[in-house]
UniProtKB/TrEMBL annotation, chains A, B:
Pfam families found in the cross-reference section: ADH_Fe_C, Fe-ADH
EC number: 1.1.1.-
Species: Parendozoicomonas haliclonae
Gene Ontology molecular function: alcohol dehydrogenase (NADP+) activity; butanol dehydrogenase (NAD+) activity; metal ion binding; methylglyoxal reductase (NADPH) (acetol producing) activity
Gene: bdhA
Protein name: NADH-dependent butanol dehydrogenase A
Amino acid sequence: MLDFQFSCPTKIIFGKDSEQQLGSQISLYGRKVLLHYGGGSVIKSGLHQRVINTLAEAGVEVVELSGVQPNPRLSLVREGVALCKEHNIDSILAVGGGSVIDSAKAIAAGTCYEGDVWDFFTGKAQLSEALPLGVILTIPAAGSESSSGTVITNEDGWLKRSMGGEILRPKFAIMNPELTYSLPPYQTACGIVDMMAHILERYFSNTESVELTDRLSEAALTTIINNAPKVLDNAEDYDARAEIMWAGTLAHNGLMGTGREGDWASHQIEHELSGIYDIAHGAGLAIVFPAWMKFCQRVNPSKLAQFAERVMGVPADFDGDIALEGIARFETFLRSLAMPVRLSEADIDNRHFEEMATKCIGDGLLGNYVQLSRFDIVEIYKLAQ
Amino acid sequence: MLDFQFSCPTKIIFGKDSEQQLGSQISLYGRKVLLHYGGGSVIKSGLHQRVINTLAEAGVEVVELSGVQPNPRLSLVREGVALCKEHNIDSILAVGGGSVIDSAKAIAAGTCYEGDVWDFFTGKAQLSEALPLGVILTIPAAGSESSSGTVITNEDGWLKRSMGGEILRPKFAIMNPELTYSLPPYQTACGIVDMMAHILERYFSNTESVELTDRLSEAALTTIINNAPKVLDNAEDYDARAEIMWAGTLAHNGLMGTGREGDWASHQIEHELSGIYDIAHGAGLAIVFPAWMKFCQRVNPSKLAQFAERVMGVPADFDGDIALEGIARFETFLRSLAMPVRLSEADIDNRHFEEMATKCIGDGLLGNYVQLSRFDIVEIYKLAQ
């Protein structure tokens, strides 16, 4: 086990009546709030109006900024920073999923900084202060509701960059599984893949003697796999939605990484994919992860075999390669979510494989469970064909 | 799943070199610290001197208060409160196990209150402020290093009372598994039973649809069971000590209780036992828990069967009562730790059964998984004979 630090200060307020606590929570952080969200669905569901009413009852003054898109953009972040400075905003309330929360985190940091907020993403500035941030989560996927990081895309060159710090962890996260009933099956499935990937990126590690962290990860993965068909079968299955939602938070708050080195190659390999093609992050991960697993099975199969046995239910006395059988069952599971598991299923051909692999890592090495050269990454794209 | 709130703000600093961060951490909370500890072992191991040196290097002024005993006493807490007020102490550093940390929590609360600290334990005063508290953990057992509660014994009437609040969670907890090498096997085993009991009290619940919380609990219990023989076999097995230590924290930081009602009858039944007899809390729990399980198996066996299968490894097609077999295997495990599992093994006879049961609950009902009358509690003491 490696040395580690862990804390999870975000107050998780989970359940059917959790929005009722919005007023008392947001009031802890001042009287002027920036209400940040995407657009259509939050309005259509009536959540936006309920939030507005609650904030009014709490005597909180509201400035609104909507329009967050998937892969949240720097231009909107800059607009948010300007608004917060202009109106002397005390805190930010993000209503939405990972993109909205990430955008809000960047605004929270940029407001407390004299220079340009992009400086944090280039390493030019160090994060030390940020506005307090509260969250109402509507999409279980990215885990941003209690994580310390944010990923923003700069439209000038389409650079996707991340930054993070403990100060960015939301102060509170209101999580009502009922708010996820209206998620379409495709978005539900993408979220499920995303949260599983957050666990798997930490799980596939060469660090030995991490039994507790392994077993916690296997517990979360098994729970997600058991509840995924339930939420796809019945979008209003409260308990299954709740299991998925809570798992998505724990998948990315740091707990599943305690004491070990993570991998994160698949995320990078997927980023290049969604950089060129219009494919959702979760769908891209559903394609990349099995291919990455197949590549790793050839050189480092041990943890894949453990995954196969403990998560995918392959019996220890399976007649054949346990790791490969586990990967096959994982693919079958992904297909059951109606996720693509081959590039061809997302209409992606082989013409950019070399370019994406080179952009991904150049002449360096990517990942930790197996260190990948750009030639290996091309091989992984081929395995995903 | 029930609605819940969860946060775990304590900064866990875990690993071989974690004490090196003491100076920088404690300095965040002022320049005058109360150093609170038990006695012999912390001095003998050299840890006390190392802490003193580190605090001196950090330029922190130290006032010392030692002498904490198991079942920490109100008189020493009052002494601590007086010292903190007299010396304008900024923060408290607890070096030890649960008793030291609980004592420190009470001092932290009492220092910020004009009245008598016992008022918090009787409900006369509401907790709103406390000095910041840091911890160097030397005994993995009680989970107090990141929990929000404290239990103190008032020698005037030997009343053992608890109180809690988010403000009492330690700011940081330094957890170096090497510091637990010197724990004698008996104390190691008592700690293991204590942390398992913290999980089991939450696990045995009638709340349905708590799959993630169940599986996380099973993950932690399995890890503890697998690593217990290793630390008893080799006191300096770093990795096994680390698994046990981290499991002890997660057992009681609230995570394993998310979304469900806990039971806590066994803790109460044990408290009466250790109120009359000189028996360690962990040893008492090793006697009470199997008896409680046997009683519950008669009326509500379902979760006991799940425990048997998922934690104690009883095969689903076991020829016999799965729950009873699980309890038998749990007893065998406790015996392997050299823990007593019968009252007779702790030289306790039946003469106080009625008295203890009546003190425990009077004419009311205790617990949730099965609601127990005092007659049921007598039955449980009999099952433990």
